UniProtKB/TrEMBL annotation:
The species this protein was found in: Anopheles epiroticus
GO biological process: proteolysis
Name by which UniProt lists this protein: Cytosol aminopeptidase
SUPFAM superfamilies linked to this entry: Macro domain-like, Zn-dependent exopeptidases
Pfam families linked to this entry: Peptidase_M17 (PF00883), Peptidase_M17_N (PF02789)
CDD domains named among the record's database cross-references: Peptidase_M17
Ranges annotated as spanning the membrane: none
Amino acid sequence: MAFLVRGSISTVRLWSRSYASMSKKGLVLGVYSSEGKDEVKFTPYAQKYSESTAGKLLEQINICGPIKSGQTRIFWELGKFPAVAVAGLGDASKWDELDEIDGAKENVRIAAAAGVRALSANKIAEIVVEDMEHPQQAAEGATLANYKFQAFKSKDKQTPLPAVTFAEDASGKADWERGVIIAEAQNFARVLMETPANHMTPSIFADTVKQRLGAANVEVLVHDEAWAKEKKMGSFLSVTNGSNEPPRFLELTYRGSQDEQCVALVGKGITFDSGGISLKPSANMDQMRADMGGAANVVSTILALAQLKAPVHVKGFVPLCENMPSGTATKPGDVVYAMNGKSICVDNTDAEGRLILADALCYASTFNPKFILDIATLTGAIKVALGDCVSGVFSSNNKLWEAIHEAGSQTGDRVWRMPLFKHYSDQMCDHNGYDLNNLGKGKGGGSCTAAAFLREFVPKGTPWLHVDIAGVMGDCSDQSYTGSKGMSGRPMRTLVEFVTKAGGSA
Ligand SMILES: [Zn+2]
């Protein structure tokens, strides 16, 4: 998969190079285990393969002992494949109900990823994966694990990634392909987020999306600063003031159904967040290249929906800019006007995500959508509250909350509901001299006051969800298949599942 960026890394192949010199093939098989039992229980595919080795594979596994969930053992020269990685599928019933996860599916992602990683570490260039009775999830685990961001490394220092394919004689090829499409779209989001800010400016982001999504039957309109001025997006434009990089505003349309009403997805696209005049401390400021994680989620979700030909009508709205300090930057205390006429005191220029989303929400509302979902790396407070394993969701609609909650348990990328109490709205709106302050009055509850702020820009009758992903942006330790280091692209698979189910005409 190639994507185009300006400068030194034009058209780089990022995750599908193969070993030139290696030709060995490997196979990933699954085996279940249950507590206290040594008995080996293969998947149906693995059972057949074991029989083809005249029972030798089973014999070997019995010698080395049970293979637990997430573990792998490689067996050489047994059957048709020179290398066979047997990956532990564990016991789905061991997942606690309170974990709110479909354990059987999650175990398959974990196992497929472990198998691919083990063979890859042994320099196997072509890896074939069986269906593990859940081919979509096997594809997701395998594809997310077979990813490495090395676009800026010298060619000869790059680690080649193996080619991963589905076993020809396994069942559920269409589901496998579905999993590959979704996981590759998540890998695309990871690349967008990981790419350094000087190589992923608003213009480069817009060009990259136009190229990649344009090729996938998505209409991509790239609006400029003059357009935003005409729309009276004073809140969005106030954030762009300090940067020399011109802002962009993406409007994406995928029409997979005849439905007149669309689902609106809005994503925060701060391609670099220095904090502006309210400058951030320098430690870890580089992470702020991924402050467009919401934008990456919207773009990759629409890409996947289009490639899957999902029967939904979806529009994406993505404000893109840098937040920088300079002589022209917005100053703390400045008052600006959003598209809906509300005045906002910019108390802290580092609370800029809500400022650009405010206008994007207003603009999205003009299309009279079925519902609006906005997604943003919005607050450090959400990480304090929930850590790095779950996204926070604020929803004005119980049915939509239930649908996204269920989607999260299916995909393994979970969500947790947060409050939209009037108390928080009062903290944002009860001021003399202007309508809203971009910081809450009270102490604590930073994610909740941010959500309360955004709520002021969604018309009362429009069902709405706000997803705060600052906690799951990067370095997540809960999903072995996504890897514990680097930008995650999460929770786009949950968005794909949710929009497919909740966005249809029914
Ligand atoms: Zn900020």
